[in-house]
Amino acid sequence: MASTHIPDSGRFPYYERHLPHQHPEGFPLFFTWNLKGAVPARLIVAVKKECLRLQKEPLRPNESLTDRKIRHGKLLFVFQDRRLDVATDGPLHLKDPAAARIVVDSILFGAPVRYDLYAFVVMGNHVHVLIVPHWEPKEIMQPMKGFTSFEINKLQEQPGRVFWQDESYDHWARDEEEMHRIIAYIENNPVVAGLCSKPEEWPWSSASMRANWPIGKPWVRPASSRSA
């Protein structure tokens, strides 16, 4: 696979709202955001139980408390995400192809000025992207979520509906190997959910664009559309 330079220093400022976020400058950031109400109370309870179970496990050999916290965070993310993949109830507004297209177009619109884009997928109730930001992450996410919520609410005749969950999940890839694992996770999401047999069959994903977009390289806007 194609290689990507991942720097070893520099940080965006640390900030905190409901959850702490630390975004190392120049590193790929994996973002996930859900529809409002996509995570039901019973799933929140199940995640908390899984968290308690993990906390009872002993440290692995040579594992620090920080390393364990990071590992548990990834496990809990996957635990919740896999259940969102197969949800049949709760909001599924993005199953509407026109709504999914609005999100895809918004993701592509931000590249390459606001960020370099490495992968994305739009599922029925959540979105994954992998980017290297050129702007502050909150200055990327807030306009994208605001624009897509307004446009989809207009499309679905639901003015004023709270569309997205306020908080987003994020995780930064610490090296190139992890970056490629995240790309594979993102693009295989529809396959794991049983929505298609191959990643490239899902039209609302970077996998469907790989014929002209090498894995590990940022997306390049086609020359015919650069002046649009």
Quickly give the structural class.
Answer: alpha+beta
Query: Can you name the CATH architecture of the largest domain?
Result: 2-Layer Sandwich
The overall pLDDT, averaged over residues, is: 85
Overall structural domain count: 2
Shape: globular
Walk across the major sheet and give the strand order: 4-5-3-6
Number of strands: 6
First and last CA, distance: 31 Å
What proportion strand?
5-15%
> Largest sheet at a glance?
4 strands, antiparallel
Rounded Rg = 18 Å
Please give the share of residues in helix: 25-40%
User: Regarding quaternary structure, how should these chains be classified?
Assistant: single chain
- Tally of individual helices: 5
Order of helices and strands: EEEHHHEEHEH
The CATH class designation of the largest domain is Alpha Beta
CATH topology of the largest domain: Alpha-Beta Plaits
Any low-confidence stretches, pLDDT <50, length ≥5? 1-21
CATH superfamily of the largest domain: Transposase IS200-like
